[in-house]
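[job 0412] stage=fold_complex status=start
inputs:
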Amino acid sequence: MTGGPTAYSFDWSAVARGLPYLLEGAALTVLISAVAMVLALGVGLGLAALSQVPGRLPPRMVAADVEVFRNTPLLIQIFIVYFGLPQLGLKLSPFLSGLSALVLYAAAYNAEIFRAGLEAVPKGQFEAARSTGLTELQALRYVIVPQAVRISFPALGNNLVSLVKNSSLVSTIGMVELMFVANDISFNNFRTFEIYGAAAVLYIVLVLALTRLLRLAEERLLPAP
Amino acid sequence: MTSSRRRMLGIVIAALVAALGAAGWAEAQSALETVKKRGKLIAGVKTDFPPFGTIDSGGQNVGFDVDVAHLFARALFNDEHQVELVAVTSGNRIPFLQSGKIDIIIATVTITDERRQVVEFSEPYFMSGSLLLVPRSSPVRGLDDLAGKTVAVVQGAIQDKDVEQLQPRANRIKFGKVSEAVLAVKGGRADAYVHDDIVILSLAKENSDLKAVGKPFVPRPYGIAVRKGDTEFIQWVNAQLGRMRQDGTYDRLWRKYFADVEAQLVKP
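[job 0412] stage=fold_complex status=done
writing structure:
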């Protein structure tokens, strides 16, 4: 505190007035997060599979991708896609710019999570599956991947929760999602605590809903063996 | 829930309530007294807003507002270096003041009725209208040409509302910083960027691929801001501004920073 009179007294009616706009923002947060999640799972699984391909090149390419996208701040990736790529002639819409950065970032983590899951399945499992007459792909499809997914699930859930929160960074490129709306309202009515507090509560609600969905998915799709 | 957990929850809630209540209390002392006791003024200035507040190639804060902050430090402590400059944006400067991160905003704050309700403003020290920054080859000549176009504005700046009212058919895209809005125009993300005339003129001068267009619209004054109700501090600020006008300091700063664009500015 620097001292002097504080001009602050709470006005929670500001939250009520801002709520419709905040919910609009939350809807875009849900949309971009959900699409990014599905794509990041697919890309992450693809990368993890590629990392298991025999030969030197594919695993190295995956490792390079992971190092680039995991070791740089997401904000820089968003700015490169949104501000940088148009100078090279590739102009994605703000939504696609934010989405692709989110997907590449989350997929790098997902790839590592899936890879760890795949490598945690004992080698003997693969050999045993092959000896029952399954082809390599069948052995992966029916024996290895289901176990790998179960092993990966908790870490995967954490990463998806991070993705929802990280989606707030696309507010910097003018995407009117929850964080953007919170800025927009509080920069004009100066009810900083109330508005950011309300946004934080909405994020908690979104993440709680997501974790509940993940638990249901785990129970349904991956019944305990 | 076990009883110890319940007790813990009770303590947390009580602490929260106490914190919220305490935050609402007004402090009796003027920030001016705190600043004197501390021996240093903490001022919020812009860092991407030529010629009021930028960072030079050596990493130093420079600009009209920065000079004013140094003059205030000299008046307070007889040493112009007894000031800590905190980078602020149009969006966060008033929250920074309210939360006590800074003592004073010297950062191109346009005086508006909404802002008067939450901060204490000094006498005006500059007049600014708004202009458009567009690519050099753009056919856009003013607000009228922006129907159906994408217009960049800075979040928290008055132009956000101005453009909404004066050109409702424009599609506004809002950025947190001046630099990002400029990038948006350069990269074709926006057809124009609307902000205070002085910054648009300076940016057009610095960027040969951009130009300033339009007639300055809705001219309004800039004020220095302190926390709401701190009349002692704002009277001190006004006395300093009055002295700067009388002893020629203000004219010297005007010539230093605005001489080359003077013809296009709104006279105070």
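[job 0412] summary: Residues 3-23 of chain B form the longest helix (21 residues).
[job 0412] exit 0
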